[in-house]
Amino acid sequence: MMEDLHPIQKALIYHGAVQCGFCTPGIVMSAQSLLSYNPNPTDDEIKKAISGNLCRCGGYDRIIKAINNAAAVMRGDIEKIPEHSYNGKMIGTSLLDVEGNVKVTGRLKFADDIYFDDMLYGKVLLSAYPHAEILSVVTKEAEKVPGVRLVLTAKDVPGPNRYGGLGGLVQDESVFADEKVRFIGDTIAAVFADTYEIAEKAVRLIKVDYRQLQGVFSPFQAMKNDAPKIHEQGNLIKEATITDGDIHKAFENSDVIVADSYYSPILEHAYMEPEAGVAIRNKDGGITIWYPSQGPFIVQRSVAKNLNLPIEKVRVVGTCMGGAFGGKADVCIEIILGLAALHSGRPVKMALNRKESFVMSTKRHAYFMDYKTGANKDGKLTALQAKIVSDGGAYAGHSADVLEQSIVFAGGPYVWPASHVEGACYYTNNVIGGAFRGFGMNQVHFAVESQMDKMARELGFDPIDFRLENALEIGSRTITGEIMKHSVAIKETLRKAKEILSNEEIPVPSNSNKKIGIGIGAGYKNIGAGRGFVNFGGAVLELKENGTVEACSSACDLGQHTKTVMTQIAAEATGIRYDKITVITGDSRHIPHGAFAIGQRQVTVAGNAMLKASKEFKKMLLLHAAKISGKMIDELSVSEDKIVDLHGNTVMGLDELAFHEISQGKKILAESKYTAPQTYPIKGDPNPLYPIMKDGKIVLDYDENDYRNYITYNYCTQIAFIEVDEQTGEVQVKKVLGFHDVGKAINPQNCHAQLEGSVMMGVGYALSEEFIMHEGINITETLRDTGIATSLEMPEKRFYLIEDPEPIGPFQAKGLSEIALVPTVPAILNAIYDAVGVRISSLPANAEKVFLALQEKEG
Amino acid sequence: MLLQDYYMPERLEDALDIIAHHNGRAKVMAGGTDLFLQLQQHEISTEAIVDISNIKELRYIKKESDIIKIGALTTHTELVRNSILKEEVSFLSEAAESIGSEQIRNVGTVGGNVVSAQPAADTALPLMALNAKATILSQRGEKEVPLSELYKPQGGTAIDPSSEIIACFSFSIPAKNRGAGAFRRLAKRKALALPILNTAVVLWVDDKNIITDARIVIGPVAPIPFRAKEAENVLIGFSLEKNVFEIAAKTVANEACPRESFLRGCAPFRQDLSQVLVLQALIEASETLQKKGVA
Fold first, then answer.
1. Is B183 in contact with B36 (CB distance < 8 Å)?
2. Segments in A538-681 forming alpha helices (H)
3. What integer pLDDT is reported at residue B265 of this predicted model?
4. What's the confidence (pLDDT) of residue A556?
5. Which residue does chain B place closest to A854, by CA atoms?
6. Would you say the ipTM is above 0.90?
7. What is the pLDDT of residue A166?
8. What pLDDT was estimated at residue A2?
9. For residue A1, what pLDDT is reported?
10. Alpha-carbon torsion B235, B240, B241, B245, what sign?
11. In the prediction, which pLDDT does A705 show?
């Protein structure tokens, strides 16, 4: 297949420049346009040429490398681009994306590419106000518009008209708002018509009478006793506290105490693919929905409940995601699609435009944090005091979950002899806070890593040495009381960072107005949801008639090449060549339960299931082959696409084996489930999100030896080199070096691609991204306004993978992606201080803030 | 108004006929990068679109003795890559290159940038600083109007949609009159971003290096591109010295008076930044004058 591709397409695949694939066809076109007038471009010219093509998954590094490579082929300087990277080994090999071909040719089907004849197109009516009572909804005029086939409102929901966040713990969201609207993303009605244009016209004819209510636009307003109640039970979503040791005494005995307030704004995921889905009514009265979901089973449950259908009658087919980053872990328009198919009996489609997607989808929570930390002259930390307040938005979503996690990680990857951390999250009339790459980790690491930098400076310590002095190691106790047991690689990442930095070339300022700064950030992050949440997944392998293998996995591919990694695991464990294995994900009818892509858990949870099932499957293959051939099982093994004997001679092809058994009505398949080790909630929390129950009561204290908040963690250190323009306040990130613990890199190129993409996101988070709300209305309405970084903001990036074997992971691997965004922001912010001596504690550190801070500093 | 007709005339007179026929209810479209969005978002409505992008006679850049003429349908990409502009008014090429992205620059035109009348239109600012004139065609004939008169004071274009189309822009090559310009822009990021502030300046000196005339245009600080006339006056009569530029830049900050903006930043920041950018631009223009051996 690959030989038919253009060199640009081949190069994009070969260099791992294709992730979710949504932006790829555009990149191909821009590259071709550039090379048509400039056959030998510089890196800067390439960056400029692709600066109108946003890629949210990657860091642009690979795209630039690929375009260079393709240009060389097109000029005739080199002959060709390799078509695969297979070297006979599976684990540790950078196998190319198994879907690369369909992605570079634009043939990968996203949900909005699905088409049925006779399909209806839907448009939603969203709330006009951030907080109001609904007095009436009149749809008469809309129904009269020719071509309108269906108008849905709350009265058309057969079920409870409620759903909620992760696991549906708090079911406070309505499919269609009935009595009240709590933010501008609340849906009041939906129109389905022969075309989008008709639907849109009809939506504007729906009359809604509101009685406006006083809005609550910050958690500090929300916590006041006399604040308007957004939900009946009040505005508090969750609060929790951890206390360890006596902080007052510890502060008294500290040589240095540093305190500051930090702010991290609401952020938009800005995945390239806005929400879109298609639904049909099946002959049995059930529903099938195609939708790009990180949690197809959560969708299935929420749809079944609201459509009042038995769960098995709802099939959710998770389509390829054009990026997600946590933003497609919550239910959005899936239930509306299901209802429309149910009521109309026709295929229905809805694709949100960017404006709708921005208000309807979840966001990174805004955080307000007060930190006070102490240390001694010898460089040892003494005490941590933190108060975290977050803006949950109109509905509970993942707010409690994210908050619990922030509390657990509030101290960063360090040992604090005494700590007191309080956190609270409130409802407001803003957009909903949800899951977003890092899940509560980023905000607290920004604060604690800034504090670390300040303390190191006050004590005259090198920032890496100061962190090394206090970093967690095996046997250390975290602020929640977990004793770290294995694969604690933070010190190794710090040491490696120090070693590399000592020989690293420091960028030179590009003119006399500019100053260079270097900043350090470190961090750690959980693998899988924890605090009592049970992480489980499954895999099923089946031999098909033609001798290929279908491997259904509970993984979800959001564009991070999970299918490729699952293929590698299955190939390694079975001995079957990778291109004989097709991994299937996302389809609730076929895949094992537990599919949920959150918290970097795919490799550990779905990967372990795949490993287990693959081992079983290999046994099954040999068992059947032994029976047919009359040989002993021990004499046989699997090699590429056949069964061989001890001398490597072919006993039979897998196709022959398949044909023989399947023609006799037998199936060769193996199924396996994996449940990750038990995790525990925050000690003493009377109301944990995932409680452990004993005798009908919530357990509050746990055995010190078993106690762990998560399955495991990964660790990292990053160094940012930045340049500040003292005249304008602009900051340019020149270079980021990352030192990352992965357990074992199953696919090193994939690891690098994830890291580059995360760091790129970090550049935007640190310097330009913000989802601006004013009194409940979003000012940020377009991708442009989000301020996500383009190829022209791209720093040079280099990563060092540190392989500290993880006993729990398949082939000792850990997940890797979210973690890389965690230290980038503080590294950049600490570098700004290093360059010009101003401390920005409110993100983003845009030109305005740096400019004003420099002005203030100079008086 | 419901969109009923879409025309793609290939000759200018046909285009003029069509707009006259629709009597103000048709929109002339060049690259369509703004117009399409406005239509899609129901910000405007029109009875007909007259897509003039096929009128080849309006697409050129040429030098006629001391004058540069740019056809109104010249795309931003063409402005960026043109060697005459690079040589004579590189700050105009630079300004064109700061617009949107390559895809937008490939279709967006200089005429469109001026007619859409945005206060921070990146190519309109340097053109205004160059004292460019627009040649406007109608069925009544042709007239030449200074660029600054193409705007209504309260905002929007002064071009009559029922009868007029801009044919070209022309300006004297600054170096021929001992002049040089510069452009500065600050945005949230380096591509696909609206300017927080942008400015274009041109300085002219006599043979004793005394500033004889100056143009300072800045956006977005008013409903239309803003000419900082007080600051221009400050410069006239002085030699090319940094302290004079500093006084002029301060004057700009006072007269320009940028507003608060959620997306662009607070007023004090933008006011102080205007001073920084204008100063940088004046210094660069003066350096160019000196480098070229004019001054």
1. no
2. 562-574, 607-629, 654-663
3. 92
4. 86
5. B269
6. yes
7. 63
8. 57
9. 52
10. positive
11. 87
Query: Could you say which residues of chain B have pLDDT below 50?
Result: none
Give the pLDDT confidence of A770-786 residue by residue, as tens digits.
Answer: 999 999 999 999 999 99
Mean per-residue pLDDT over chain A, rounded? 95
pLDDT digits (tens, 9 = 90+) for A493-522: 999 999 999 999 999 999 999 999 999 999
What the block records as the tokens of A708 is 């762990």
Residue A592 has a pLDDT of: 83
Chain B residue numbers with beta carbons less than 8 Å from the beta carbon of A727 are: 276, 280
Between chains, do A728 and B277 touch, taking CB under 8 Å as contact? yes
| Per-residue model confidence (pLDDT) at position A700 | 82
Q: Which of A52, A787, A852 lies nearest to residue B188, judging by beta carbons?
A: A787
Contacts of A792 in chain B (CB under 8 A): 189-191
Model confidence, pTM: 0.96
Interface of A with B (CB under 8 A): 30, 33, 48-49, 51-54, 727-730, 768, 772, 774, 779-780, 783-785, 787, 789-793, 846-848, 851-852, 855
Which of B66, B49, B59 has the alpha carbon at shortest distance from B5?
B49
For A271-309, write each residue's pLDDT tens digit.
999 999 999 999 999 999 999 999 999 999 999 999 999
> Could you tell me the two tokens for B138?
């109608």
Nearest to B276 among A52, A727, A768 (CB): A727
User: Would you call A50 helix, strand, or coil by DSSP?
Assistant: coil
Q: What is the DSSP string of B10-76?
A: SSHHHHHHHHHHHTT-EEEESS-TTHHHHHHTTS---SEEEE-TT-GGG--EEEETTEEEEETT-BH
Nearest to B102 among A49, A789, A793 (CB): A49
Q: Which amino acid is at A669?
A: L
Hey, which residues 155-194 in chain B have their CB within 8 Å of chain A?
186, 188-194
User: Does B273 contact A728 at a Cβ distance shorter than 8 Å?
Assistant: yes
Taking the C-alpha atoms of residue A240 and residue B263, their distance in angstroms, rounded to an integer, is: 35
Q: Judge: B191–A848 Cβ closer than 8 Å, yes or no.
A: no
The parts of chain A modelled with pLDDT lower than 50 are: none
For residue A167, the model assigns a pLDDT of 54
Task: Output phi, psi for A210, to 5 deg.
Answer: -115, 155
Is the CB of residue B103 less than 8 Å away from at least one CB of chain A?
yes
In single-letter form, the type of residue at position A710 comes to Y
Residue B42, C-beta contacts closer than 8 angstroms, at least 6 positions apart: none
Does residue A302 contact residue A337 with C-beta atoms inside 8 Å? no
Give which of B220, B221, B219, B253 is closest to B234, Cα–Cα: B253
Pairing of strands A381-393, A366-375: antiparallel
Chain B residue closest to A856 (CA)?
B269
Report the amino acid identity of residue A508. V
Q: Listing from the earlier edge strand, what are the strands of the sheet with A669-675?
A: A581-585, A549-553, A536-543, A669-675
Distance of CA A486 to the CA centre of its chain: 25
Task: Show the DSSP H helices in A706-823 as ranges.
Answer: 748-767, 783-786
Give helix A824-836 / helix A847-858 axis angle, nearest 10°.
30
pLDDT for position A570: 95
Distance, CA of B174 to chain centre: 16
